[in-house]
Specification:
Layout (H helix, E strand, L loop, with lengths): L1 H55 L14 H7 L17 E4 L5 H17 L3 E3 L15 H4 L2 H7 L6 E2 L4 H8 L4 E3 L7 H15 L1 E4 L13 H14 L4 H17 L2 E5 L4 H7 L7 H13 L10 H6 L7 H11 L6 E4 L7 H11 L3 E2 L1 H4 L2 H4 L6 H14 L2 E4 L4 H12 L10 H12 L5 H11 L43 H4 L4
Parallel strand pairs: 1-2, 1-5, 2-3, 4-5, 6-7, 6-9, 7-8
Helix pairs in contact: 3-8, 9-17, 10-11, 13-14, 13-20, 19-20
Length: 503
């Protein structure tokens, strides 16, 4: 009996011990699991802080300073939240790769066209590749000239843009499964719907090799025209380095007074390409002709320089430019910023212009060599700086109706019809020749020059439409009227005698 009682007592003690140990094990396990969860959370928070910290604290310098900022300072140092447009959701029909051709402004307009086309046929646009094979041999990529992140994000509600092809699509291109073409120039949007889209659906990737003037000036839906403007005037923002340099130049010029930008397109490549040799000696004529034939994509035919000049298709020479600026009544002491590359003939050719307008300046004379060192061998980046200065000038005068002249003209219209004197070279060369031959007095010559340009100053006007002759009608980017506030009549203050603020 005693033995049975001892056994029962032992069993109760063991059972009681188990009841005590199990709760202890549960408590220990609970504590262990809680500790692991908390530690994992801490590690994740630290990692998240390292990832987001710099962006969240950007601009809040007091966070990294031993001094404590006041609540008022904290309130103003918090960076403004960047509101991005919502992504556009659509079925992607394929990928559009673009290889631009030409100079900066030719490529700029082409990029605007390609975005509009990509949007209309619902494809993903790959950040365009810039021309590196032209005369200028500029090695700059898109991101060296334009703010590529702003370009992508600012248009995300219109079109999907990627910096490069997705890996699987890239492999298709490497295997030769893409399709390359040069679209027909000045095409209506229906051409891309009916001809290009079926090719895109079949091949999934299309490479466009030439992009200049691939979209018509007129006859397009208003939303297409406005998107071209949005890309040109908002999405294509230059890099911070280029914009800073442009601001510095404008600041220096403004501190000295009003300034005029003269786009003097009397450079070797322009003369060789156009075949315009007026004012050149026989040696220079031969040099320019050789250069034209050396580039297979330039005109390989005999060009009658004098005939082209009389038709108004040649840039004015520096000597002719000096005469016209004087006839227009431009103050001889005003600052004239030369927006151009190296002038053909150098100081000798510029002598007459400098003699009449001694206050000529360039990037190279306003800044130190070290300021331009990074941009020096990149013609498109240098042209971008000139573009920014041209937009800010009191007057902009191009001596040749090329791509920069047209695109800057249109941008200045967008900025409030800022004064742009659009020289009518066909009339001017006739007047110059008559004056040089003694057929016109100076007063007659000057009056005729002023009258010819009374309403050629960037004032509001309707874009000229010439059916079936797109090359002869007004260029969309010179006068994007769908994006501008137009008036029924030209502004009264664009009359020459009242608008000349630099006389």
């Amino acid at each position: 009996m005693d033995m049975e009682l001892k056994i029962l007592a032992a069993e109760k003690v063991e059972k009681h011990r188990r009841l005590i140990i199990r709760p202890r094990i549960k408590v220990w396990m609970t504590r262990a699991i809680t500790t692991v969860v908390l530690w994992t959370s801490v590690v994740q928070l630290i990692a998240l802080g390292e990832l987001l910290g710099p962006s969240l604290l950007k601009g809040m310098h007091y966070c990294f300073s031993p001094s404590v900022a006041s609540p008022d300072v904290e309130k103003f140092l918090v960076p403004a939240k960047v509101v991005l447009p919502p992504k556009r959701i659509y079925k992607n029909n394929g990928y559009l790769m673009v290889s631009c051709n030409g100079g900066l402004n030719q490529m700029r307009a082409a990029i605007c066209d390609m975005v509009a086309i990509a949007r209309h046929i619902n494809v993903t646009l790959i950040v365009p590749e810039l021309d590196k094979t032209s005369f200028w041999a500029d090695s700059s990529d898109f991101q060296d000239i334009f703010d590529v992140d702003h370009f992508i994000t600012s248009l995300r509600d219109e079109v999907r843009i990627l910096k490069q092809l997705p890996p699987r699509v890239k492999r298709r291109v490497e295997q030769g499964l893409s399709y390359s073409l040069s679209p027909i120039s000045w095409s209506n949007i229906s051409y891309y719907e009916n001809q290009i889209l079926p090719l895109m659906l079949k091949h999934k990737v299309i490479q466009v090799n030439r992009t200049d003037a691939r979209l018509a000036n007129n006859g397009l839906p208003t939303e297409i025209q406005k998107l071209r403007c949005r890309v040109n005037f908002n999405a294509l923002r230059f890099t911070s380095q280029i914009e800073e340099l442009g601001r510095r130049i404008v600041k220096i010029l403004r501190e000295r007074g009003p300034f005029l930008v003269l786009h003097l397109r009397y450079e070797m490549d322009m003369l060789a390409f156009s075949g315009c040799v007026h004012g050149c000696d026989s040696r220079e004529e031969e040099e320019l002709t050789r250069m034209r034939y050396a580039y297979p994509w330039w005109k390989e035919k005999v060009i009658n320089s004098e005939l082209k000049r009389k038709e108004g298709l040649c840039p004015l020479t520096p000597e002719e430019t000096a005469l016209i600026l004087t006839a227009l009544g431009i103050d001889h002491n005003v600052q004239i910023y030369i927006a151009a590359g190296e002038i053909y003939g150098g100081e000798k050719r510029m002598a007459s212009l400098v003699g009449e307008f001694p206050n000529l300046v360039r990037k190279e004379t306003l800044l130190e060599p070290s300021d331009l060192m990074y941009f020096q061998n990149h013609s498109s980046q240098m042209a971008a700086v000139d573009y920014l200065v041209s937009l800010e000038s009191d007057i902009f005068i191009p001596t040749y109706d090329g791509n920069m002249a047209k695109v800057v003209e249109g941008h200045r219209r967008f900025l409030g019809f800022k004064k742009t004197i659009l020289l009518d070279t066909r009339i001017l060369v006739q007047l110059i020749d008559q004056y040089s031959n003694g057929l016109l007095s100076w007063d007659e010559f000057s009056t005729a020059v002023k009258e010819a340009h009374t309403y050629r100053m960037g004032s509001p006007k309707r874009r000229l439409v010439i059916p079936y002759k797109p090359k002869e009608e007004d260029y969309f980017y010179a006068n994007p009227q769908e994006c501008l506030q137009l008036l029924d009549e030209p502004l009264k203050n664009t009359v020459l005698t009242k608008y000349m603020v630099l006389i």
